[in-house]
Amino acid sequence: VASGGAAGASSLLIVYPLDFARTRLAADVGKGTEREFTGLIDCISKTFKAGGGNALYQGFGVSVQGIVVYRGAYFGLYDTATDVIGGKEANFFLRWGTAQVVTTAAGIISYPFDTVRRRMMMQSGGKKKLYSGTMDCWKKIAAEEGTGAFFKGAGANILRGTGGALVLIGYDEVKKVLNDVIG
Hints:
- One of its GO terms (biological process) is mitochondrial ADP transmembrane transport.
- Solcar repeats lie at residues 1-84, 90-177.
- The protein is mostly helical.
- 74% of the residues lie in helices and 0% in strands.
């Protein structure tokens, strides 16, 4: 869990500004001058000018927390559930179904972190701040919108997670083949 979290945090450190820009650009609707940004570079440079380097990493801490929670649930639940169904020798479809349940559970458990991350990203570089920080964001969402607000969009995220289940099973299958070949 710790090594998965550390690996996720390390890669996130590099790609986070791009994820940040993607999120901001996706929400930047309109045509021509109605839009806040003209593209990726414009989004990154305007955000940097408005708030410095920290603005590009708004919500980074909660993203790292979310990765640790997701990966911990993903691998921890998968190993436990795989043992329950008969180990790595169980039928492919049974293991895939188990992996799908695990991926869905991990996604639901970690989704509130993703919601807070997106909210923090969306206010970065703007003049009006809805949240003074990550904890304030958690508190305001819970108090003003209710617990359900943390899970808006979770259904689409679950559908997207189907690939994650295939990765878990694929990893096991590749490991089996390599063990047979290498010994």
